[in-house]
Write a structure and sequence with these properties.
With 351 residues, the chain is α/β, with parallel strands linked by helices. The protein has two domains: 2-128, Rossmann fold (3-Layer(aba) Sandwich); 136-316, 3-Layer(aba) Sandwich (Rossmann fold). The protein has 13 helices and 15 strands. The protein has helices at 23-34, 49-58, 106-120, 149-161, 177-181, 189-198, 203-210, 234-247, 264-269, 282-297, 301-305, 329-343, 345-348; strands at 2-5, 9-10, 15-19, 42-46, 63-67, 82-87, 98-101, 127-128, 136-140, 166-170, 212-214, 217-220, 252-256, 273-278, 307-311. A seven-stranded mixed sheet has the order 11-12-10-13-9-14-15, with helices on both faces. A six-stranded mixed sheet has the order 1-4-3-5-6-7, sandwiched between helices. A hairpin with a 2-residue loop joins strand 11 and strand 12 (217-220). Helix 3 runs antiparallel to helix 7 and helix 4 crosses helix 12. The longest helix has 16 residues, at 282-297. The chain is elongated and about 75 Å long.
């Protein structure tokens, strides 16, 4: 039997048991889980009946992940609230139980388990942050169009993710992110906002079922229809960000912001760092000047005071794939120019 405890503290301790006689599969899955620091369960893995059943009869297992070959009818007699079958041949062994595909990525398995648990668990328990470092919020916004804002944000996020737990959120009206990554997303940030307003105690679990990764950077898919975010005020977003800080171990939150976000300035006001990309052409300069005058007239001058402007050079080569952004010229620019601003010259040299 192998055990692994998540780094975050689950106040109401829950056990996730994995039972599969295929040892090579179990160890691969265990290796994956062991590298996930924020799995909200204490995980126990079994490969033999004579080890699993005595344990299950003695301990309170919250969720069981069991392979199709290991499943038996007497499993249902155990007092396990949530049983998920790892389907191998597509057979439905019990219509009342959840079946997920065994032979898919560990990331997808965890996502489907968390999605199921979020929907079914009446009391999901409370997860609280244990790390001593607060989450720093970086807002990236410019009134100037087509200036590499999203590429800059993703590159910065992927580079930070090498050393820190980092989350990226995109608030563009039409990000095109799914098309660029050749992925279809089952849920997006509008679903997260809904859970925050209606079932805040399940926010952590819902996030785990939604998080995607690109180039090592975690992100929650942007809204497919941006109008679905139209009723959320700036203070609502700030409350959500603070709740994310409370229940996760993220050290950086990168907000790729746009004018489609209601109360944009209220969100910017609550960022720890603000990066604005500028260009030197007359129209871009005029837009920046108008933006800064508007901030001043509406008494948001503190936004301008903590904003760092970046006039990006012309890059000869940018990666075509979002998964490879840390290898391009923009990554070199961020390491040389942005990191010293963010961390200080001495600390940035170590990254």
């Amino acid at each position: 039997m192998l055990t692994q405890k998540q780094k975050g503290e689950l106040l109401d301790k829950r056990i996730l048991a994995i039972f599969d006689g295929e040892e090579s599969y179990v160890y691969r899955l265990m290796d994956f889980i062991s590298n996930k620091e924020d799995i909200p369960f204490e995980v126990h893995v079994f490969t033999r009946e004579d080890k699993f059943f005595p344990y299950a009869e003695k301990e309170e297992i919250e969720c069981l992940l069991i392979s199709e070959n290991a499943y038996q009818k007497k499993i249902e007699k155990l007092k396990i609230p949530h049983i998920i079958i790892l389907s191998e041949n597509g057979n439905i062994l019990n219509k009342t139980l959840c079946h997920i595909n065994k032979y898919q990525s560990g990331e997808n398995i965890i996502r489907e388990v968390m999605e199921y648990y979020t929907q079914k668990a009446q009391d999901a328990g409370t997860v609280l942050r244990t790390g001593s470092r607060n989450m720093s919020i970086i807002g990236v916004y410019t009134p100037v169009g087509r200036c590499l804002q999203t590429t800059f944000s993703l590159t910065l996020g992927q580079m930070l993710a090498r050393h820190y737990k980092t989350l990226y959120l995109n608030f563009e009206a039409y990000s095109g992110l799914g098309r660029m990554l050749n992925r279809e997303f089952k849920s997006d940030i509008s679903d997260l906002a809904y859970y925050f307003s209606c079932a805040r105690e399940k926010l952590f679990y819902q996030m785990k079922s939604m998080i995607e990764t690109v180039g090592g950077l975690d992100f929650i898919p942007p809204a497919d229809v941006y109008q679905s975010l139209g009723g959320i005020r700036g203070t609502g977003w700030v409350d959500l960000f603070r709740e994310i800080e409370k229940v996760t171990e993220y050290e950086f939150l990168i907000l790729d912001l746009s004018d489609s976000l209601l109360d944009l300035w209220e969100v910017l006001k609550n960022c720890d760092h603000i990066y604005t990309i500028v260009r030197e052409d007359p129209l871009a300069t005029a837009k920046i000047e108008q933006y800064e005058k508007a901030l001043e007239s509406m008494q948001y001058g503190d936004i301008a005071s903590k904003t760092r402007k970046w006039e990006l050079p012309v890059f000869r080569k940018l990666p075509l794939q979002f998964e490879e952004l840390t290898y391009g010229d923009l990554a070199g620019y961020i390491k040389k120019e942005v990191f010293p601003d963010l961390f200080g010259a001495e600390q940035s040299a170590c990254r």
